[in-house]
Amino acid sequence: MEEPDVSVLFLPSHAGEGYSVNGTAVLERGAPMVWFVFPDQWASVARFHLADGTFTGFYTNLCTPVERDGKRWSSTDLFLDLWIPAKGKPRWLDEDELAEAIAGKVLDKWTAERIKRERERLEVLLEAGAWPPVVCHQTDLAFIRTTMHESDDT
């Protein structure tokens, strides 16, 4: 699904390993996943599910803005992630990885500062109830399955 301010990608079956936060499964192998990519933004959002389709929460990935060249998309992961569980309090993930990347000069000073500003921006939006964006709440599995074909990867 393509809109001027967001691209929505539906993955009907996550092929990778499962993912846990604090020992709780939040994404299982075979689970459906919905990604929201915002042009020129330094973060993307995914709706995570269990294999049975149970919604577990929103995963925000801090990354460079996506560059598109035809069907090829590219972006650089910036280590820091935000987990917003369906029930419970949001928490930042991989802060240790970010610190190591900064200390090891994997990230330059400008990028490290940009990550800090993006985190601050997201915290303000989160506090105001404006993160993740409304489209992420509205575009749930039921909506996706009625508007997009599961065999379609867009």
Q: Which features does this protein show?
A:
154 residues; 26% helix; disordered C terminus; 7-stranded antiparallel beta sheet; alpha+beta; FomD barrel-like fold; two-stranded antiparallel ribbon
Topology:
Blueprint: E1 2-3, E2 6-11, E3 19-21, E4 24-27, E5 33-37, E6 43-49, E7 55-63, E8 67-69, E9 72-74, E10 77-85, E11 91-93, H1 95-103, H2 109-127, H3 134-138, H4 141-147
Antiparallel strand pairs: 1-2, 2-5, 3-4, 5-6, 6-7, 7-10, 8-9, 10-11
Structural summary, described in words:
- The chain has 154 residues and is α+β, with helices and mostly antiparallel strands.
- It has one domain (2-145): FomD barrel-like fold (Beta Barrel), CATH 2.40.380.
- 26% of the residues lie in helices and 35% in strands.
- It has 4 helices and 11 strands, in the order βββββββββββαααα.
- It has helices at residues 95-103, 109-127, 134-138, 141-147, and strands spanning 2-3, 6-11, 19-21, 24-27, 33-37, 43-49, 55-63, 67-69, 72-74, 77-85, 91-93.
- The strands form 3 sheets. It has a 7-stranded antiparallel sheet. Strands 3-4 form a two-stranded antiparallel sheet.
- The longest helix has 19 residues, at 109-127.
- The chain is globular, with a radius of gyration of 16 Å.
- The termini are close together.
- 25% of the residues are buried.
- Residues 150-154 have low confidence and may be disordered.
